[in-house]
Write a structure and sequence with these properties.
The chain has five domains: 118 residues, no CATH class; 269 residues, no CATH class; 94 residues, Tetratricopeptide repeat domain (Serine Threonine Protein Phosphatase 5, Tetratricopeptide repeat, Alpha Horseshoe), CATH 1.25.40.10; 86 residues, Phosphorylase Kinase, domain 1, CATH 3.30.200; 182 residues, Transferase(Phosphotransferase), domain 1 (Orthogonal Bundle). About 3% of the residues have low confidence. Helix 8 crosses helix 9. Helix content is 44%, strand content 15%. The protein has 802 residues and is α/β, with parallel strands linked by helices. The two termini are 81 Å apart. The longest helix is centred in the middle third of the chain and has 44 residues. A hairpin with a 3-residue loop joins strand 11 and strand 12. A six-stranded parallel β-sheet has the order 7-3-2-16-1-15.
Length: 802
């Protein structure tokens, strides 16, 4: 509901209003001179036109209201004789050189063929009442002349709206001949409601007297044609003019021209015209001052002060002298295209222009429209539909200017908010807080920098192996901008990766899991801040990776401890001990001890980042075919013992001394002890029956018994390592852990010289002392063992190098 309200509030703005007005104008039929400013502009153009000289003898005869009433309802007696106006009007109607138009407020209702009327009339005419007889003769004559071929009757019709039907309380004249024109192709596919058409009437045959509708429309726009269902009828002005021009069959070419025999009158598509308002008004008479010798070519008779009579007179003058304007057929489409173009201009272009440029451009467009409007009016006698678009341009530009001002203010506020959120998200991203970074920019506006940051956040999720979050981030990015970089490929590969992981959920992955992704398009995983390059080894507790510290571009070795190997109940204690002992190992700074840079935790494992060592583990030299020289073994063991003594002095016991945890570089003779503090974690953490985590082959008896482990355990393990490096064999071997444990605790080892007789006797003494079952009988310290080995090395191999 809140989103719907936000959408509604956003939609109800000035820009939407400008669009809605444009759509309304496009769907509404255009009629010229309906607007006040359009009439004012029309008047301005007509002041630049010189009215043509008038040669049509047109006059108006204005009758009193009582006379008009009697013409509708029938003449009555004035005393015992005919009213005077009948004697005055009959000679006027008798003039065959004058075309008469009579405007009545209603259709005449008096009849001459009524039987009673005929009987009374005949009796009076034959009797001795000459005044009454004369009245009936004049009444009959008036009736015949009103229905003669030189008189056109008209009924005022105030409804000039072509979109609505108006009732017409009289019988219409015969319909015009109508045919198609070339302009009809411009309108034939339009809906009926949008096609230009004459004003519509709903007429009924109420009497036998045909009457033409008299336009009494406000303003200057005068229809000449009227529509009744499918028929087109001439209006009063056109009917009078047709009789004057002796054209009995006017022909209307739809949407184009009216033909009166050889006379062609171009009209608007709706059959209307706009008379030149500055034409000289015709001479007006009353019955009293009408001159007997006056013989106008056209005489319009109506009630005194009737506006429809004056409009009809103006229309007749305009028709005869071609002093009228019309809207061309293409003007309809020009009107629609202009509105559409202006709507696009206002809604799309104005917001992208500066205020000054948009004002100047709108003024230029308005000036061109004004010049075109007045130019066509003066030179072509055409009225183009430009005023309504001009008003739309003016008001629309004002509305858009207000909208742009308000929108820019909102944009500045939004930009400020977006920038603050972006900076916050960027800081979160740099701190590795991808989830917080994603939340900070959830509501920000889309931009290139935002898309780049979203892409980087998705890549950071990938490196953290949070593939579900990475997919959500990339999907959000794809929604903001489709086809951004390689997001689509990443989504596809992440989906496949999730399917692979879900297929392995029911199995114990153990050490088969790896962080390294072979697909080059996937982002490199990270542990903490370290980028994982490749896998370089596997141990009992996890996988070792070659990593890279991006801050100082330093290679590091990252050893992992996979939580999936341990019981969930023991995991909290396990993690606490791991981080405590890893921290202790990180405090060791010795040339022969690996440097620990960092320790951290991810969702499913812990890791230690340490120095990446060049060389090989001593486990590569424990086979009979790959043994190191004896002197080298003495040297290496002394270095290891020296490193162990340093750790023991720091109260740290290695607890997992073995060949695999000692790295030797033959080129530089560098010896490095690794994995401090890890072995103790595995002593009492068993995840499978009979499986002890660690290296039982190198464990001391007290370790296997579960007794408290001291520094002497490292001396025992170092002795086992020296034994294996010299002989290529282990001092205690068995097929299963139980037998191995028994032998280490209870049995003596086989002397090294029994395996390799060329070894010096010092090797036997050193190893025998280191492998004593009782910790008290071993070397007291690793330093003592180091000193003994070095002395023996100098003596047996004459070597002074330490």
């Amino acid at each position: 509901m809140a989103r719907l309200w936000e959408f509604t509030a956003a939609a109800l703005n000035l820009r939407t209003l400008v669009l809605a007005v444009a759509l309304g104008l496009l769907l509404w039929p255009w009629q010229p001179l309906q607007l006040g400013h359009e009439r004012a502009l029309f008047r301005l153009g007509t002041t630049l036109i010189t009215p043509p000289p008038l040669h049509l003898g047109l006059a108006t005869l204005e009758l009193e209201t009582d006379v008009i009433h009697q013409l509708v309802h029938g003449p009555g007696l004035s005393g015992n004789s005919a009213p005077p106006w009948m004697g005055q009007l009959l000679p006027i109607l008798a003039n065959r050189d004058t075309t008469v138009g009579l405007v009545l407020p209603a259709a005449p209702v008096w009849q001459q063929d009524d039987p009673l009327y005929k009987a009374v009339s005949a009796t009076l005419k034959a009797g001795k009442q000459p005044k009454l007889a004369r009245f009936f003769r004049q009444r009959d004559l008036l009736h015949r002349r009103l229905h003669g071929d030189r008189v056109t009757l008209g009924l005022p019709q105030a409804q000039c709206d072509p979109t609505a039907h108006a009732p017409f309380a009289a019988t219409l004249p015969a319909p015009l001949n109508v045919s198609a024109s070339a302009q009809e192709t411009y309108f034939q596919w339009l809906p009926q409601g949008l096609r230009p058409r004459p004003p519509a009437l709903t007429a009924a045959a109420l009497n036998a007297v045909p009457m033409a509708p008299v336009a009494s429309c406000p303003g200057l726009y005068q229809p000449l044609l009227w529509q009744v269902e499918q028929d087109t009828h001439a209006g009063f002005a056109l009917a009078v003019y047709s009789r004057f021009a002796d054209s009995l069959e006017p022909h209307w070419q739809r949407y184009g021209q009216l033909n009166l025999d050889s006379i062609g009158l171009p009209l608007s598509p709706s059959g209307a015209m706009i008379p030149l308002p500055d034409l000289r008004q015709p001479e007006s008479f009353s019955l009293e001052n009408f001159k007997p010798d006056a013989s106008p070519e056209v005489l319009l008779i109506g009630e005194s002060g009737n506006a429809a009579l004056r409009q009809a007179a103006l229309s007749l003058l305009a028709l005869e002298h071609r002093a009228y304007f019309h809207a061309p057929a293409l003007g309809f489409w020009l009107h629609k295209l202009l509105l559409l173009a202006l709507a696009i201009y206002l809604i799309w272009l104005v917001p992208r222009l500066s205020v000054l440029v948009s004002i100047l451009l709108s003024c230029l467009i308005a000036l061109v429209m004004l010049v075109a409007q007045i130019g066509f009016q003066i030179t072509q006698w055409q009225w183009l539909p430009l005023t309504e678009p001009l008003g739309y341009l003016t008001l629309g530009h004002l509305a858009m200017a207000c909208w742009v001002t308000q929108n820019k203010r909102q944009q500045r506020l939004q930009a400020s908010t977006d920038q603050a959120q972006y900076q916050l998200a960027l800081q979160f991203y740099r701190d590795g807080r991808s989830e917080d970074a994603l939340g900070a920019i959830a509501t920000t506006t889309t931009s290139k920098t935002l898309l780049d940051l979203l892409y980087d956040i998705g890549a950071q999720f990938e490196r953290k192996r949070l593939y579900s979050e990475a997919m959500k981030t990339y999907q959000a990015l794809e929604q903001r901008q489709r086809g951004f970089r390689d997001v689509k490929d990443k989504l596809s590969k992440l989906a496949n990766l999730q399917l692979m992981e879900s297929g392995s959920l029911n199995g114990n992955l153990g050490l088969t899991k790896t962080l390294v992704l072979t697909d080059a398009q996937m982002s490199k995983p990270v542990l903490g801040r370290y980028e994982i390059e490749k896998e370089i080894g596997r141990g009992a507790m996890g996988v070792v990776y070659l990593g890279r510290d991006p801050k100082i571009a330093r290679p590091v070795a990252i050893k992992t401890l996979n939580y999936s190997q341990f019981n969930s109940k023991q995991l909290p204690e396990l993690k606490e001990r791991f981080f405590r002992e890893a921290e202790a190992a990180g405090r060791l700074s010795h040339p022969n001890i690996v440097t620990v840079y960092d320790v951290g935790e991810e969702r499913d494992l812990a890791f230690i980042a340490m120095d990446y060592l060049q060389g090989k583990p001593l486990s590569d030299f424990i086979h009979p075919a790959s043994l190191l020289p004896v002197e080298r073994v003495y040297f290496i063991m002394a270095e290891v013992a020296d490193a162990l003594q340093f750790a023991h002095d720091k109260k740290i016991v290695h607890r997992d001394v073995k060949p695999a945890n000692v790295i030797y570089n033959p080129k530089s003779s560098q010896v490095t002890v690794t994995d401090f503090g890890i072995a103790r974690i595995t002593d009492n953490s068993r995840t499978r029956t009979g499986d002890i985590m660690g290296s039982p082959l190198y464990m001391s008896p007290e370790q296997l018994r579960g007794d408290k482990v001291s520094r002497s355990a490292d001396i025992f393990s170092l002795g086992v390592t020296m034994y294996q490096l010299l002989t290529g064999r282990l001092p205690f071997q068995s097929d299963n852990l139980a037998n191995l444990t028994y032998r280490i605790i209870h049995e003596n080892h086989k002397a090294v010289r029994e395996w390799r007789s060329s070894l010096p006797t010092s090797a036997t003494r050193i190893i025998n002392k280191a492998l004593q079952k009782n910790p008290a009988k071993r070397f007291a310290t690793a330093a003592e063992m180091c000193d003994i080995i070095r002395k023996c090395r100098r003596k047996d191999f004459n070597s002074k190098r330490f």
